[in-house]
Amino acid sequence: MTLPFVPAPIRARKVVRTIWDRTGKNPEQPKLRHCHRDRRGWVVAFEMPIGADSFKWLDNLNAISEGLDASVRIVYDRGWVWFRLGTRRIPRKVSYQRFYRARRPAGELMIGVGFSQEGRIWTDLSKLPHLLVGGANGTIKSRFLKQAVIYLAETRSATRLRLTLIDLKGRGAPELSTFANLPHVDQPVVSDLESAKQLLLELEGQMNERYEHIARAGCSDLEEFNRKNPEAPLFRRVIVIDEFADLTQGLSGAEQKLLERLVRETRAGGFHFMLATQRGDATVVPGQIRNNVGAVLVGRVGQPTSSEVMLGNRAAASLPQSPGIAIWQHDQGTQIRVRAINIEPDDVRHRVLLQIPVVQSYSLPAAQEPAERRALSLLGATPGDGEHPPLSGLSELGHRVLESVGAGVRPQNGS
Are the CB atoms for 359 and 408 separated by under 8 Å? Predict the structure, then answer.
């Protein structure tokens, strides 16, 4: 077979054969059988020698990736090992606006992850069905959660999505309290351990009631129910827990088992967890929970054991100290390096403001934050100190913006 002279396949052959020589007992080397290039990088296939152990490729995934300076995915199929090599350059920063200006792929709860060497990485929370986010303070954890929450709110109505927020910071105002006024949030942000324990019991009751409702309709899960009842679909609920370590370490044995049951059994009922923690040891992320999480996003961690618990290897402990850089692991262990999406606090506040339904008037305190002032300016209303501008003060552009986010308000005659 004649192969084109291209750098990536040649480097792939050299690196893979080097690893094979170091780890394999079979003297026969793999043979390069296929390669082609597409918009995401290279696809390369090797024929494995008879009796070869294909698991060695997965064990040496990080070494292959570093040797090629590329993201690597591996699939084994009928004697051939297929490599997907991402060779794009990862941008230094991935803003919310830059990532989401692209068309959203099909999916019920799609959120962006970041840019990898394959391009944009998306995931569907409804399919995972749960997501674990880790990383030391100041890496990716909090801002990733915020961008995911606001994007879900912007792309799903409150009739199809509900948000439950738990933020056990232990000091000051919880960061997730920024989202307290979203129409999707149907209860106060939980910020103390005792309230979190009570909430777990409430979620168990909701889960049991929902399963009974689905079963009475002759369905097995939420997707089937909604497909058969398009006029009265059930909403999905996303439970976001920041500082997950503070929750798990404060639970009794019975409460721990309840949490594990919720993570294990709520998928079919449309309940999805996003769990975030700075630490990832076995006491923080028990095996029953880790085994039921469909994907993990981990920024740099200080201890190799944290990386091993969350990823199964030490890759996150060796990440460079570069803002937003993280390891994305999904699809039964496939992992790639990404630059996670970043959103600025002012942008979060502005986007939350646009999601709040407006009925009679804006209700903003006299001491307004700069981001809120800029949002009102964008809408065409500029309040005076201590005043609450009426809807009649909005420009035509402002009313069109409100309509686009579901407020459905039009100017009155003579306004």
Answer: no
Tell me the sheet residues that pair with 318.
none
Angstrom distance (rounded) from CA 266 to CA 221: 10
Exposed/middle/buried for 202, CB within 10 Å: 0-12, 13-18, 19+?
exposed
Give the list of residues 6+ apart from residue 412 with CB closer than 8 angstroms, or none: 391, 392
Picking from 357, 397, 392, the residue whose alpha carbon sits closest to that of residue 378 is 397
Please give the Cα distance from 281 to 394 (Å, whole number): 52
The span from the CA of 158 to the CA of 236, in Å, is: 10
Contacts of 315 (CB under 8 A, 6+ apart): 62, 307, 327, 335
**Phi, psi (5° rounding) for residue 292?**
-105, 10
DSSP type of residue 392: G
Q: Which CATH architecture has domain 7-86?
A: Alpha-Beta Complex (3.90)
Residue 297 bridge partners (DSSP): 133, 328
Could you list the pLDDT tens digit for every one of the 415 residues in the chain? 333 334 566 767 776 776 666 556 566 777 888 888 888 788 888 887 776 666 666 666 667 777 777 888 877 777 788 888 888 888 999 999 999 999 999 999 999 999 999 899 999 999 999 999 998 887 889 899 999 999 999 999 999 999 999 998 755 567 899 999 999 999 999 999 999 999 999 999 999 999 999 999 999 999 999 999 999 999 999 999 998 989 998 999 999 999 999 999 998 999 999 999 988 777 788 888 988 999 999 999 988 888 888 988 888 888 888 889 999 998 766 788 899 999 999 999 999 999 987 543 444 444 444 554 454 444 444 433 333 333 334 445 444 444 544 444 433 443 3
Contact 252, 270 (CB under 8 A): no
Tokens of 324: 């937003």
**Rounded CA separation 367/389 (Å):** 14
Q: What is the largest CA-CA distance in the chain?
A: 87
Return the structure tokens found at 187.
Answer: 């209860």
User: The pTM is what?
Assistant: 0.78
Amino acid at 243: E
Q: Count CB neighbours of 188 within 10 A.
A: 10
Superfamily of domain 96-199+234-345: P-loop containing nucleotide triphosphate hydrolases (3.40.50.300)
Contact at 8 Å (CB) between 29 and 20?
Answer: yes
The span from the CA of 322 to the CA of 299, in Å, is: 10
Q: Which ranges in the chain are annotated with CATH 3.90.1150?
A: 7-86
